[in-house]
Each structure stands twice: as structure tokens, then as C-alpha cells.
Amino acid sequence: MGFPLALLDPGAWPTFVFVTARLTGLMLTAPLWSMTAMPRTVRAAVTVVLALLLTPLAPRVTLPDQLLELPMPLALELVLGIGIGLAAAVLVQGASLAGEVISLQMGLSLGPALASVPELEVPSVGQLQSLLALFIYVAVGGHLVLLRGLAESLHTLPPASALDLAGGADLAARLGGALFTSALGAAAPVMVTLLLVNVALAILARAVPQLNAMMVSLPLTIGVGLLMLGLALPLLAAAVAGWMHGLPAGVAGVIAAFRPRP
């Protein structure tokens, strides 16, 4: 049976439903695919089209005898898709978290409180670093790597097959660690510089008690922080590119974590 005709086979619809559930999990967490700027109808249409294309590549699924046995396998497919999407999401969100920490250390977190128009959202360093990481992620084809990894998972872990939930729980802990590790690596240059600036200000305040350290520290930390941030952006871009080039191994690790042990 040809590829277009295989999509019209009624026996393929159970497989289509399970593939759609796995893709839905990916669309909920994967960078770019989960952007709120993309209308929900567009994301739903993309999910359905991709599921139709991937369904002939997946092993056939037989429905359980009891209808009440269907929700749990579908939920596991959703969890597996979420795990594959998180393999890239933790890297992008790590860069964003690093930017928020840098904003806090520089004193830019006071911006929303001191904004002249409170209803207007004030851009932060976190948004800048998040967009930088997202651009690199798209430039190296990370969004396609996730789709390729999900397509390969249909053979490694066929739809409706048993999953290792204990391995999935261990994976969630490792992904949380990867989030903070990537955030620490992205924020380290600016944080170390600001720490040295604060130590120097503390020594200066002890040596010159007449100096108003509070009046000097805020503009100095903001100025030095912005300067160091500009110098560190190329290093951050290189680090994010390295993370994204390791994304295929990360997706393979997610699939291996859910694979039942013999």
C-alpha cells in the first residue's frame, strides 16, 4: 500500500492517536514549538500534519479490550514527548535563568518597581539571553533534531509499549540538574566579576568611612555588569552552541531512560 493510501487505512488510526499524543507532549515543552506567540490552532494543525506523516513509519498499535485501559498508555506517550522536549527546553531556560540571576545581582530587578509606566513590561537580561539561546537553537536545527529524535523513538519505543517510569523519574532529576548547571555556566563570568566588585567596594568602604557605599555601588555594579555582559555574550553564544550540538545525545538519553530494562 502506498504512503498516501496508508494514511486512509482504518487500522492505522489507533497508531495515529498514540503518535499524536507523543507529539503533543513535545509541542508542550520544546522550544519554538511551544511558543505562546504561535496560535494554538496553528500548533494543533502542525501536530496533526506531523502525526499523519509519522504514522506510517510506526509499528501498528492494537487497541486494548477494555476502554478504561486506554488513558494510561496515552498519558505515557504524552510523558515521553514531554521528556524529549525538555531535553532542549532546559538549555534555553538555563540561559534565561542565568539572565534573571544576573539582573538580580546588578540591581536591574528594581526596573519594574521604578518603571514610569507600571503596566508596560520592562525587558530584562533574562529575555535577552533566552532569545539568544533560542536563535542559536533554531540556527543549528535543534527543533528538527527533536522531531528526528521523536521519529526514531517510534522504533526504539513503539507506541503503546511499556515505559520505565523509574528511569523517567531519574531523568526528571537529571534534567533539573542540567537546568541549574547550564544556568551557572552561563552566568559565571558576570557573577564572578560582580562578586569582585562588591568585595572591592566593601574594602573601600572600610578604608574610607566617609564614602557612601550605597550611592556608589548601584551605578558601579550596573555599569560593570553591563560591560561584562557585553564581553561575555560571545562566550555565552559559543557555550549554547556547544550545548545544542550535544542535543542529539540528550534526546537519545531521554529515550534510553524510558526504555524498559531487560
Report what the structure shows.
Residues 114-120 have low confidence and may be disordered. Helix 8 runs antiparallel to helix 9 (213-245). The relative contact order is 0.14. The protein is mostly helical and 262 residues long. The protein has helices spanning 3-7, 13-29, 40-54, 71-106, 111-114, 125-139, 142-156, 165-207, 213-245, 247-258.
Q: Which radius of gyration do the C-alpha atoms yield?
A: 24 Å
Largest sheet: none
| Fraction in beta strands | under 5%
Kindly, what is the distance between the CA atoms of the first and last residues, rounded to a whole number of angstroms?
A: 35 Å
Helix and strand pattern? HHHHHHHHHH
Helix content: over 70%
**Protein structure class:** mainly alpha
Number of domains: 1
Count the E strands.
Answer: 0
Count of alpha/pi helices = 10
Unreliable spans: 114-120
Give the overall average pLDDT: 82
- Bulk shape: elongated
What's the short story on this structure?
With 262 residues, the chain is an all-alpha fold.
What are the salient characteristics of this protein?
74% helix; 0% strand; 10 helices; mainly alpha; elongated
SSE topology:
Elements: H1 3-7, H2 13-29, H3 40-54, H4 71-106, H5 111-114, H6 125-139, H7 142-156, H8 165-207, H9 213-245, H10 247-258
Helix pairs in contact: 2-3, 2-4, 4-6, 4-7, 4-8, 4-9, 4-10, 6-9, 7-10, 8-9
